Amino acid sequence: MEEIKLMKGNEAVAEAAIRCGCDGYFGYPITPQSEILETLMALEPWKTTGMVVLQAESETASINMVYGGAGCGKKVMTSSSSPGISLMQEGLSYIAGAELPCVVVNVTRGGPGLGTIQPSQADYFQTVKGGGHGDYKLITLAPASVQEMADHTVLAFDLAFKYRNPVMVLSDGIIGQMMEKVQLPPHQPRLTDEQVREKYPWATTGKHGRAKQNVITSLELRSEEMEKINNRLQDKYRQVEQNEVRFEEYFCDDAEYLITAFGSCARICQKTIELLRAEGINAGLLRPITLYPFPTETIAQFAKHVKGILSVELNAGQMVEDVRLAVNGVTPVEFYGRQGGMTPTPDEVVKALKSKLVK
Amino acid sequence: MTLEEIIKPENRIYGKTPLLTETPMHYCPGCSHGVVHKLIAEVIEEMNIAEKTVGIAPVGCAVFAYNYIDIDWQEAAHGRAPALATAVKRLNPDNCVFTYQGDGDLAAIGTAETIHACNRGENIAIFFINNGIYGMTGGQMAPTTLEGMKTATCPNGRDVSMEGYPLKISDMLAILDGTCYVTRQAVHTAAATARTKKAIRKALENSMNSKGTSVVEIVSTCNSGWKMTPHQANKWMVENMFPAYPLGDLKDR
Ligand SMILES: Cc1ncc(C[n+]2csc(CCOP(=O)(O)OP(=O)(O)O)c2C)c(N)n1
Ligand code: SF4
Ligand SMILES: [Mg+2]
Question: Which A-chain residues 218-277 have CB contacts (< 8 A) with chain B?
Answer without folding.
Answer: 218-219
